[in-house]
Amino acid sequence: QSVLKGGGKDPYKDWKPGEPVPYAALCTTFSLVELTSKRLIISAHCSLFLRQVLRLTPQDLLPTIQLMINKLAADYAGIELGIGESLIMKAIGETTGRSLQVIKADQNEIGDLGLVAAKSRSNQPTMFKPKPLTVKGVLDGLMGIATVSGDGSQSRKVAGIKKLLSAADASAAGKGNQGIDISKDKGGASETKFIIRFLEGKLRLGLAEKTVLVALAHAMVMHETQQKGNKAPSSEKLAEGEAILKTVYSELPSYEVIIPAMVEHGIFHLRENCKLQPGVPLKPMLANPTKSITEVLDRFEGKHFTCEYKYDGERAQIHYVAEDSPNQYPSVLPTAKGSKGLSAIFSRNSEDLSKKYPDVLAKLHTWVKSETKSFVLDCETVAWDLVEKKVLPFQQLMTRKRKDVKVEDIKVKVCVFAFDILFHNGESVVQKSFRERRDILSNAFTPVEGEFAFAQYGNTSDLDEIQTLLDESVKASCEGLMVKMLDSSESGYEPSKRSRNWLKVKKDYLSGTGDSLDLVVLGAYYGKGKRTSVYGAFLLGCYNSAAESYETVCNIGTGFSEAILEELHAKLSRVAIDKPKPFYAHSAVPKDQPDVWFEPRFVWEVKTADLTLSPRYVAGKDSLTDGSGKGISLRFPRFIKERDDKKPDQATGSRMVVEMYQKQEGVAKTKGPSVDDDF
Ligand code: ATP
C-alpha cells in the first residue's frame, strides 16, 4: 500500500457503493501508473483500483477493464476505432474554439494530442459544470464513435468525440492536480487527455494487457479473501489465481464471457465455468524460426517429433457445432448461424473471416464424419489449381476478395489443410499430446481432394530424411517444414505462445537469418526520376512491446513493382502525419529523417540478407551491450508482401530482432531475456 500513495490523490472520493464508476477515478489511477515504470507498482495500482470496482460497482468491472486495455471489444467482434490524427484535431478545434492551425502548432511543440487537447480545454471558459463522466458512459460513447457507418460517418464521428470532450473535465492536469506541469507529460489525471489517447489507440502508460490481467486476478483473489473476513491472501493463493486466469484467458480470450462468470462464481471456480468454446477464437500457437535442420535436431534431441509441410496460405481457425450436437454454445458472432449450430472461420488475428470463405463454410459439413458434432480446427487455407490438382502460390490467394464474397463469383478455389484440432465433441483437447490430437483429427474427418486435406507429414529424426521431406515440400509449393514435438506434456497446444515446441524451417532462409520479418511502415521518401509522384523508399520499424514503441530498423526501396508503388502511395498518403508519433524511436540526425511520416497502420513482410549494426537505426539498441550505441539494421531488405492479417503491434518484436542478430555467427551475446509470445 505504501508504494501506492499518489501525492494525496484519492481516486475513490466521490464514488459511492452501487454508483457507476466515475471516469475521473480511473483517470487518477492512470495518472499514478504514468508516474512509474515499475511493472509491479503499475500492477498494484491497477489491482487496488479493480478491488474498489469489485467492492463498490462490480457490474462496471468489464468496461473498466476495456478502458484499461484500450480495447472496445474482443478482436472477433471486429470493432475498431481507426481514427486518424486529422479527425481528432478537428474535434478538438471545434470543441474548444481553437483554430486547426493553433492545434497543429501545439502538436508540433508538445507531440502528444492528448496533452494538446487537455491544454486546449483548460484555456476554455466553462459556462456550466458538465455532469461527471462515468466509465460506462465513456465506453458507450467510444463504442458509438467506432460503430458509426454510412453516409456522413466522418462528421458523426467528430460529433461523437466532441460530445465526450465537452463532458470531460476542463482542467488541464485533471481534478486536484492543478500544480502539475502538463508539458512534462506525466501525472496529469485529465479526462480529456486519456479520452484522446484512447482514440489514438495508445494510452502510453506502459500498461500492457498482460499486466492488467495479472492485476485483475490479484484484485479478485484479494476481494474474495476479504469477503470471507480474512485479511490478506497468501502469495501462493495470489499465484494460483493468476495462473487460473491466465490459462482460462488463453483458451477463451473474451473478457465479455470471463468477467461475468468470474464475478458470479469466483476466480477459483473459473476453470469449471469458462472453457474453450466454439464461437470464441483463441490466439494461435506460433513457431520459432530456425536456420538449419541441425538446429532442429539439437533442440529436439532424444524427443519424438514430426515434420509437417508448411503450407503457404492463410491461417484459419474453423469453429463448428452441428445442429444436432448435444452441446450448444451461445453465439457471439453476427455471421455465425442461428440459435442451433454454428460455423465460422477466424484469422490469425481472431478476425471473423466467414464472409471471405462462404465456399468453405458451405462445404464444411460434407468433410465431417457423422459422429463429429463439434470442433475447433487449426488449418491453412491454400489456393488450389483445379486442373493441375495442386497447390497454387500465396499470391493467388491474395486476389480473393476479403468481404461479402458470393460463392458463385469465386474464381480462386481454396483447399483447407488441417494440421491441429483444439476442441472436439464438447471437450477442449489442447492439453492432450500432439500425437493424440492428430489421431482425433484424422478420425473426425473425411478428406476430399482439392477441398479438405490433412497436412502431409513424416515422423523422422534422420537428417537425410528430413532434408528429403523439405525438398519435397518445396516441390509441392510449400514454404518448408513445421517441426513439432509429438509426445509428452511438452506437445500440448499452447495458445498465443511462440513455442519452442514448434519450429519452422523455411527453405529460403536456411543460409540467411532464419526468417523474414514483419515490419511497420513508419515513413517514406519521395521517389526520384520516374518515381517522383510516388514514394520510392520507406522507413520501417519493429515493435518494442516493453516500451510500447516502434523502433526504426531499415529503409527499403527494393522489391516493389511500379503498380504496387502507386497502390502504396494511395494507401499511405491517407495516413500521413506531420510529425513522428511520440512513441517512434528513431535517429535524431536530420539527414536520416524521411520526407513523410505515417500513422502506424501497415505491416509488410520483408526478407533480408542478414542483420548488421548501424548508427542510423535504433532497433534493439537498449539490449545491446557492445557500447557502440548503434541499433540493428537489415542489410539488402526486400519487400515480399503486405501482411494485412497482422496488426502493427504484432510486427516482429525488437527482442526477436536482437535474437536473430545474435544467432548470426560471430556475434557476441547481449543482455536481456529471450522471451517472445504474442499475448
Ligand atoms: P509468425 O506467425 O510465426 O509470426 P508468420 O505469420 O509470418 O509468422 P510463418 O513464419 O510463415 O508465419 O509461420 C507460421 C505460419 O505457417 C502459421 O501461422 C500458419 O499460418 C502456417 N502453416 C502452414 N502450415 C502449417 C503447419 N503444418 N503447422 C502450423 N502452421 C502452418
From TrEMBL:
EC number assigned by the record: 6.5.1.1
For the biological process aspect of GO, one term held by this record is: DNA biosynthetic process
Positions of the ATP-dependent DNA ligase family profile domain: 407-544
Q: What does the organism's lineage look like at the top?
A: Eukaryota, Fungi, Dikarya, Ascomycota, Pezizomycotina
What is the reaction catalyzed?
ATP + (deoxyribonucleotide)n-3'-hydroxyl + 5'-phospho-(deoxyribonucleotide)m = (deoxyribonucleotide)n+m + AMP + diphosphate
Give UniProt keywords alphabetically: ATP-binding, Cell cycle, Cell division, DNA damage, DNA recombination, DNA repair, DNA replication, Ligase, Nucleotide-binding
Report the protein name in the record. DNA ligase
User: In Gene Ontology terms, what is one molecular function of this protein?
Assistant: DNA ligase (ATP) activity
One GO cellular component assignment for this chain's record is: mitochondrion
In what ranges is there compositional bias, type Basic and acidic residues?
7-16
Organism equals: Ramalina farinacea
Family (UniProt): Belongs to the ATP-dependent DNA ligase family.
Q: Which gene encodes it?
A: cdc17
